[in-house]
Specification:
Layout: H1 11-23, E1 30-33, H2 40-49, E2 58-62, H3 71-76, H4 93-96, E3 101-105, H5 112-124, E4 126-127, E5 136-137, E6 141-146, H6 150-155, H7 161-167, E7 170-173, H8 184-198, E8 205-206, H9 208-216, H10 222-236, E9 241-242, H11 244-247, H12 260-274, H13 279-294, H14 299-306, H15 310-320, E10 345-351, H16 356-363, H17 365-370, E11 375-381, H18 385-393, E12 399-403, H19 405-412, E13 417-423, E14 430-435, E15 450-453, H20 458-469, E16 478-481, H21 490-495, E17 498-502, H22 505-512, E18 515-520, E19 529-534, H23 535-561, H24 563-574, H25 578-585, E20 593-594, H26 597-612
Parallel strand pairs: 1-6, 1-7, 2-3, 3-6, 8-9, 10-11, 10-12, 15-16, 15-17
Antiparallel strand pairs: 4-5, 12-19, 13-19, 13-20, 14-17, 14-18
Helix pairs in contact: 8-10, 13-14, 13-15, 14-15, 16-23, 16-24, 22-25, 23-24, 24-25
């Protein structure tokens, strides 16, 4: 496939592409079926890029990642005041993709009530926002994707048969990588060039033994596993020639590797013959335990490794006792870090890979500090502040960090969060970007344009300032609520006209030369970083909170004194070039500080601005949410 992706040569891929070329120019709903990691989203983008809709948005939503309480609002939108926290009208995914293509990934994970609503949308070509009775017409091509057997799901009453036939207008099955091995050299060259460029390394090549290893491997994780393998090899390689040892796939000799699938089948047959109790729960337990251990307790990474949704993973982890329920309190039943019967406690930290918490996790210094105190540290990664605050409000984590704006939105809905510390402003680390060839040259050129912004984030506040500066309002532009993606594909660049972005993605985008900054936060926003904790957690575990803040202060001093080392640590985690990460780290001081009156007043000014614009359901006093030690 080409644009996006390399030109593939395996007969199975050529035959598959011919089917896609016939489907692409049509408006037919397409169901893509394929194993995890086979590139179902790439196929959907190919259909979009070769369709008459190519100049319109392509948006992808992971149905397995939608929380039950917010899924309908995310898909179909909501009206202002439709529920607690609905401070303004919100476009759903269908409206945001108007005129273009919407990929409903992992469609088999959608709940039955939402399947009913989706069926009506596909039949009537209209959506009804939550809190409204007036339908809104939508012109969107729907592409659905799944790795599960929907026929079995129908028999088990987990998927509606009528929705299946509505989606199955044109079904395509994506062959796994082991069935199109002639594509492996082409894909390997593509990924080597991609990550060498992104990480600022010279172009690498595979030794003959390495290519033989790749061709012999069974690739249970398909193209995603191949990409991760070569990404890791680029990170590890210090020579221009990649050896089998750096691939970390198995024996390092040039001999052909055993067929992993046959080995697995042989092992399972042996276990079934021996009949040592029910096999299925033992296999599932082993899979989940090992994936959880390899992911160092990160639930999002574990779910991705297993190819299941995070909700499904949490169910397995709960059954296995790998995540422990907290004691319920009389006040609302919130979980806390009070000691369990065996005297152990947990500290659940929500983090983004960039910043003090990312370094703290990479260095494992907190785990070492708590090793003899019976405290387990559990890390959960989040793409941005609003998502992290949602987890904090729902007591899924105890502690986390965000920018100025997300906690204001959370406090306005009576969240039990508490401000505990902050880091100095870094206005250069947030910006509005356009592509290098964009006709947008001034802020006034934004009128009527589509701007992507992560709702309720720091960049949301910056966007308001930018529009105000240009004499525009949010009604003068078309705001698409979506987190930034990088690297941006051609379809992504056509999806919107401008992106609101923050570090380290901002620094990486600038360094790539493919995008330019139209306006950053200087003179417009402060962009502080705040550390927040759950009120119940503070009440029962203030000792852990004090220790955590002390560790963050030490980490901040380490970053400022050893920036190159810190950049190397984070670059490996983020998959970005160390130069881009170092540039991002250099834009801010990482010295963690306790809350004081000056920072409270600055945060209050932001809250007042949002309330005056009608974006908050009620006025708030930031001081009410500050931890009183």
């Amino acid at each position: 496939m080409h644009n996006p992706g390399p030109d593939l040569i395996d007969p199975a891929s050529i035959a598959f592409q011919s089917v896609l070329d016939r489907l692409a120019p049509t408006d037919a709903t397409v169901l893509i079926v394929g194993e995890t990691g086979t590139g179902k989203e790439v196929v959907a983008r190919y259909l979009h890029h070769h369709s008459p809709r190519r100049q319109q948005p392509f948006l992808a939503v992971n149905c397995g990642a939608l929380t039950e309480s917010l899924a309908e609002s995310e898909l179909f939108g909501h009206e202002k005041g439709a529920f607690t926290g609905a401070a303004e009208r919100h476009q759903g995914w269908f409206e945001a993709a108007e005129g273009g293509t919407l990929l409903l990934d992992e469609i088999g994970e959608l709940s039955l009530p939402l399947q009913v609503k989706l069926l009506r949308v596909l039949q009537e070509r209209e959506v009804t926002r939550v809190g409204s009775r007036r339908p809104v017409r939508v012109n969107v091509r729907v592409v659905a994707a799944t790795h599960v057997d929907l026929a079995s799901a129908i028999r088990e009453r987990r998927f509606r048969e009528d929705l299946y036939y509505r989606l199955n207008v044109a079904a395509v099955t994506l062959p796994p990588l082991r069935q199109r091995r002639e594509d492996i050299p082409v894909l390997a060259s593509h990924f080597l060039a991609l990550y060498a460029r992104r990480l600022g390394r010279p172009l690498l090549r595979l030794s003959d033994e390495s290519l033989a290893t790749l061709m012999s491997w069974s690739w249970p994780g398909n193209i995603r596993e191949l990409e991760n393998t070569l990404h890791n090899a680029v990170l590890l390689s210090r020579e221009p020639l990649i050896t089998p040892r750096q691939l970390r796939l198995g024996p390092v000799s040039g001999a052909a590797l055993p067929d992993e699938e046959e080995d697995l089948d042989r092992f399972l047959r042996q276990q079934l013959r021996e009949n040592n109790g029910p096999l299925y729960p033992r296999v599932i337990e082993s899979l989940v335990r090992n994936a959880f251990e390899l992911s160092q307790g990160n639930q999002m990474q574990t779910a991705a490794l297993l190819g299941i949704s995070r909700n499904t993973l949490r169910t397995h982890l709960g059954h296995l006792g790998l995540i422990k329920p907290r004691r319920s309190l009389a006040t609302g039943g919130a979980r806390t870090s009070a000691p369990t019967e065996d005297g152990e406690r947990e500290l659940r930290i929500g983090y983004q890979k960039f910043g003090n918490l990312g370094i703290l996790k990479a260095r494992q210094s907190l785990e070492a500090q708590f090793a003899d105190q019976g405290v387990s540290v559990l890390w959960s990664e989040f793409p941005a502040g609003p998502q992290l605050l949602y987890a904090l409000e729902n007591h899924e984590i105890d502690f986390g960090t965000t920018g100025d704006v997300p906690p204001i939105f959370a406090q306005s809905t009576s969240s039990a969060l508490r401000y505990v510390a902050w880091e100095p402003a870094a206005p250069q680390s947030v910006a509005l970007l356009v592509t290098g060839d964009s006709p947008i040259r001034t802020l006034a050129d934004l009128k009527g344009k589509r701007v992507a912004v992560n709702k309720g984030s720091n960049v949301h506040y910056l966007l308001l300032h930018i529009l105000d500066e240009a004499g525009l309002t949010s009604e003068d532009v078309r705001i698409v609520y979506a987190p930034p993606k990088y690297p941006l594909t051609p379809s992504d660049r056509h999806a919107v006209d401008a992106w609101m972005m923050w570090d380290p993605l901002l620094s990486d985008a600038e360094q790539s030369g493919q995008m330019r900054v139209l306006a950053n936060g200087e003179g417009r926003v402060s962009n502080h970083q705040f550390y927040l904790a759950d009120q119940q957690f503070i009440r029962h575990s203030a000792d852990l909170l004090h220790a955590l803040i002390d560790a963050l202060e030490q980490t901040g001093r380490y970053i400022d004194a050893h920036r190159a080392d810190a950049a190397d640590l984070l670059a490996a985690e983020l998959g970005l070039a160390p130069e881009a990460v170092g540039r991002a780290l250099g834009r801010r001081s990482h010295q963690t500080r306790r809350m004081d009156l000056t920072i409270i007043r600055q945060q209050q000014a932001i809250a007042d601005r949002f309330y005056a614009l009608g974006l908050l359901p009620r006025a708030i006093k930031v001081r009410d949410a500050v931890w009183q030690e």
